Automatic annotation (TrEMBL):
<dbReference type="GO" id="GO:0042144">
    <property type="term" value="P:vacuole fusion, non-autophagic"/>
</dbReference>
<dbReference type="GO" id="GO:0005765">
    <property type="term" value="C:lysosomal membrane"/>
</dbReference>
<dbReference type="Pfam" id="PF04841">
    <property type="entry name" value="Vps16_N"/>
</dbReference>
<feature type="domain" description="Vps16 C-terminal">
    <location>
        <begin position="186"/>
        <end position="242"/>
    </location>
</feature>
<dbReference type="Pfam" id="PF04840">
    <property type="entry name" value="Vps16_C"/>
</dbReference>
<feature type="domain" description="Vps16 N-terminal">
    <location>
        <begin position="2"/>
        <end position="89"/>
    </location>
</feature>
<dbReference type="InterPro" id="IPR006925">
    <property type="entry name" value="Vps16_C"/>
</dbReference>
<dbReference type="InterPro" id="IPR006926">
    <property type="entry name" value="Vps16_N"/>
</dbReference>
<dbReference type="InterPro" id="IPR016534">
    <property type="entry name" value="VPS16"/>
</dbReference>
<comment type="similarity">
    <text>Belongs to the VPS16 family.</text>
</comment>
<dbReference type="GO" id="GO:0030897">
    <property type="term" value="C:HOPS complex"/>
</dbReference>
<dbReference type="GO" id="GO:0005768">
    <property type="term" value="C:endosome"/>
</dbReference>
<feature type="domain" description="Vps16 C-terminal">
    <location>
        <begin position="290"/>
        <end position="322"/>
    </location>
</feature>
<feature type="coiled-coil region">
    <location>
        <begin position="18"/>
        <end position="45"/>
    </location>
</feature>
<dbReference type="GO" id="GO:0016197">
    <property type="term" value="P:endosomal transport"/>
</dbReference>
<protein>
    <recommendedName>
        <fullName>Vacuolar protein sorting-associated protein 16 homolog</fullName>
    </recommendedName>
</protein>
<dbReference type="GO" id="GO:0006886">
    <property type="term" value="P:intracellular protein transport"/>
</dbReference>
């Protein structure tokens, strides 16, 4: 409707008059003042500016878009309180639309389609076509939050990268880390899961090295049946609950602990608790997990205190038992 009002033959709509006023102003003609006075006398200048902004969105030719936006900008100069947000947003939307309408991209969306789809869906379409650089530039231009924009796109790119068979695991892992770094919202464990699903277990392990959260590393390592590595990561994290869960999920092949004989048996035979896990070094207080030792393995805890000559804690255990 805005386009019809402005471009209809012999139209006297406020938007049409404002467009003519701007063109005459560029020619340095006094007619610009006549057109502008006519609009202002009817108090239709805000409507004229709004019409020009709206019509620009429905035009596909950049020259016509610019002409309408110049007219809107010209009219705004004579208004005291005109909110600039609509004008700025339209300029941004048109830059995005013109970029994706380029013949090399080939997504000729109309302004109405673009608004109905939302920017998130448009970004998904660019990602599915593997147009990652353009998608990232759009996110940066629109200043979208990292988690919604750049981080999500980089994660998609990394998941696609791990499927490339022509490069070694080391090269792919380094390329992904170099591009992603410590970007907020990126989960290396998700990318590693995709690599494992593609049959690249070694690449998945290399990617997990970049994952800062042990809670994300351990479940995937256990799924990949890398129990010793999972236990090592759990112990490095210092999270006793995570370490306890890892020890308990090791499988049934090596007793309840899955990775060696029961710790209590090792202690009673004069061994050290860290010898129970196939050479994985454990801290001395590894068996002091509150949920496990105090509720399920009190005898193991007594043996540990007895071996360490920790008479105070051993006495406390006996008092509690009594």
């Amino acid at each position: 409707e805005a386009s019809q009002e402005i471009f209809r033959i012999a139209s006297m709509a406020p938007g049409a008059l404002l467009l003519e006023a701007q063109k005459e102003y560029e020619k340095e003609s006094q007619k610009a003042d006549e057109y502008l006075r006519e609009i202002r006398e009817q108090q239709l200048l805000p409507e004229a500016v709004g019409q020009c902004i709206e019509a620009a969105g429905y035009e596909h030719e950049p020259d016509t878009q610019k002409s309408l936006l110049r007219a809107a900008s010209f009219g705004k100069c004579f208004l005291d309180k005109f909110p600039p947000e609509g004008f700025v947003r339209m300029c941004q939307d048109l830059r995005v639309l013109n970029a994706i309408r380029d013949y090399q991209i080939g997504i000729p969306l109309t302004f109405t389609q673009y608004k109905q789809l939302t920017i998130e869906v448009l970004l998904d379409r660019l990602v599915l076509r593997r147009l990652y650089p353009l998608a990232i530039r759009v996110c940066e231009f629109l200043r979208l939050p990292e988690i919604q924009g750049v981080s999500r796109i980089l994660a998609h790119w990394a998941c696609y990268k791990v499927q490339q068979k022509d490069k070694s695991d080391e090269e792919v892992a380094q390329a992904i880390n170099q591009k992603l770094g410590d970007t907020a919202g990126i989960s290396y464990s998700d990318i590693a899961t995709r690599a494992d699903d593609c049959g690249r277990a070694e690449l998945a392990i290399k990617l997990l090295e970049y994952e800062p959260r042990s809670g994300e590393q351990v479940p995937l390592l256990l799924k990949m049946k890398r129990s010793k590595l999972a236990l090592g990561k759990a112990i490095e994290s210092g999270d006793t609950d995570l370490g306890e869960g890892t020890a308990g999920m090791g499988g049934s092949s090596g007793g309840f602990w899955g990775l060696g004989e029961h710790p209590g048996n090792a202690l009673r035979s004069g061994g050290a608790p860290w010898e129970c896990f196939g050479g994985v070094p454990l801290p001395p207080n590894i068996w002091e997990f509150p949920q496990f030792c105090r509720h399920q393995e009190r005898e193991t805890l007594k043996d540990l205190y007895n071996q360490d000559d920790n008479h105070q804690e051993l006495g406390n255990l006996h008092v509690q038992a009594g």
